[in-house]
Amino acid sequence: MKKFKLFLILNLGFISSCNFPGKDSDQDTLYVSAVTDLNTQEPFYQVMLQNSEGLYKYDFWEKDSTFTNLDISQLNKGDTLLFENKEQLIYLEPYTLHEDLIMFYNDSNLFSYIKTAKGQEIKRKDFIDKVKGGHYSTKISNIKTPNTAFEIEEIISFQNEKLNLRWDYFYSDELIYSEIESVTFELHEVENQLFIIPSTIVNPYSIYHLKHINKDKIELSYFTDFESKTKIYSKIQSKPLVSDALRYSLCNDHYQSMYYVGDDIRYSKGLDHLKTYLQNGMPDVSNEGYINLHFTINCRGEVGRFGLELLDENYLPTDFDPLVIKHIVDKVSNLKEWDNLDKISHRGAKDAKMFFLIKIKNHKLTEVCP
Amino acid sequence: MSLKNLVFIILISISFSCSKVDSDKTANNEIELLQKLNIEDINTNSAVYKKLKKDKSYGKEYVDFSYNFEQTSLFKRHLNTLGLMINPDNSEYIRRFSYSYKKAGEHEKAMKMLNLALKTDSDYSTHLKNLDYAAWNYLYFYRDYDNTIKTVNKILELTQNDLSISCHGESCLLLKGQALYRLEKYEEAIGIFNSYQQNEIEQGFDPQANFYVVFYKAICMSQLNQLDAAISKFSDLIKKHPSAEVSYQLAQLYYRKSDFESSKTQLLEAEKALAEGFTFKEPYFERFDKVFNYQIEDMKRKLDSSSNFEQ
Q: What is the pLDDT of residue B20?
């Protein structure tokens, strides 16, 4: 078997680089690690390349590669990939409709990968040069919590070894709320493909694969939803940060428990108290239905990562006055008293997801559920 | 052509045209149902789907298999949607899929699934289960009292007034009584609770055995200023079921009767019960009139100013 080696590991700590033997070809197939737990969508950090030599696997944390001469496309149910480092992966026959998802297991662990197209070839230094000082914006449908009513703008910038993230939540074109977060990131170059891993080994975020970059745009793919999804960011002028933007992070970014799991997470003073609290200063409401505000509570008891669903009395989508929405978000974002926060542990979670379903009847806030 | 043959051809044509209309209608209904069921927007152009769709038995297998995964997880939803798309003829499974969204608080999707289950052809027993889950939902998830009452009435009509009928593990009459209580229709609520208790007697059961029926009936009495009757009900209840909520209600009632000593005693009992965990506990919703520490502290202050309350 042809030997290969890790070409370069830089001492910068947050960067690694690896090339596999064999001539780079358009026929090569790239598989990026997706999740290692189907319930929590916990990411892991590897990339596999199938080329004419065989299958190469690179681990971003270990910064180490291994090889097998087998071909993924020829595998049958139960076949074992035996790598040079003695690692074994047993192939699971596809049973979902995610055509690019392949799954393996060993012992009791699952490893899933997504077949994805190669991206633009770029050196990490060139990437850093291109993005330095720039701000890039995209629209996202939600972040961590269900959302159908907010329009969420995600703005990223790479500065001083930090990835700065900002989310502006709009409703009816009004800015309702802003949240910011800064995380360190790692850049890994594998076969001239660039991978970005925000945050650290302690609290890792999803892996991003750079698909394309030019002076106006960055395209990044991520893989934790059982398929490859791409965010296309446009370069924008730096936007001033709203004064009351909240610096917020989750203690375990990839998975949050639900409010009802284990010892229930609840607002310490109950729903009647919450109703009075929300009613205080509430603007007039012109229509009826439910304002369903989703959010996460992190391990420090702070609230963020909002999502919004607005329903009429027949449980169909509707609209409310943005002033009402802003009032409710402002109020809920200031809540700090939660029961059983220290007991969150389900599947490794440290934070929880929750929602308040706020009922509006006869132009008044009448109930908070459930 | 003979008249006999002509009539035959016409009859055959009519017959064919009718069956075509019927089969078109059935096909359209199925397409419409599948579109509604594809809540996770699964890829129906996939070769795997086309293969699986040929054998409806895979539908049940996929749905059953999906229960191995966390109820609100994306992966479970994918498998569950796929199973229902392969075999959409099971309204029980459609209703159960709504739980995934209900628990996650995605109520547009949850209600879409639940309403679909209610509209999908099903046997009597499944239809009743769909309805009773809907009633439970309306009350506890949405505090939608009108729809709770309407749905319980429908269940009673379908079951020819079976007063023992249960809604997702609780008496349907308890749900209706609570809805009436929340609408401040206290006398009507008491009437419903009485019907439940009378039926229990007729069935040979203890009419006081259902804690919540007695609790909310007593609350309605309290609202109607039937203070002694309410105290009597709560006092009976607390002997069997000590809880912060019952003691707190008693503390309130004694306060209204200016019996501050008894009020103090009950308030301390409420505080103790709360600390020991004897309180309303539900994983998915908060029961009406659940008691919290701040309420006990507020009442202590109120009593303090009324009677120099001391702990």
A: 53
Q: Residue B1's pLDDT is what? A: 43
* B210 domain-assigned: no
What is the overall mean pLDDT for chain B? 89
Alpha-carbon span B224 to B256, nearest angstrom:
13
In angstroms, the CA B198 to CA B61 distance is 45
**Residue B102: inside a domain, yes or no?**
yes
* Minimal Cβ distance to A273: which of B283, B284, B292: B292
Judged against a pLDDT cut of 80, whether residue B10 lies above it is answered with no
List of chain B residues whose C-beta atoms are within 8 Å of the C-beta of residue A315: 107-108, 111-112, 115, 142
Considering only CA atoms, which of A368, A301, A294, A306 is closest in space to residue A338?
A301
Task: Please state which architecture CATH assigns to domain A124-247.
Answer: Beta Barrel (2.40)
Tell which of B108, B178, B274, B281 to mutate to test the A interface (max A CBs under 10 Å). Answer: B108
Confidence of residue A240 (pLDDT cuts 50, 70, 90): confident
Domain residue limits, chain A: 15-116, 124-247, 257-369
Segment (H or E) for B44 = none
Each residue's pLDDT tens digit, B99-113: 999 999 999 999 999
Our count of domains for chain B comes to: 1
Interface of B with A in 138-167 (CB under 8 A): 140-144
Range of the domain at B59: 34-122
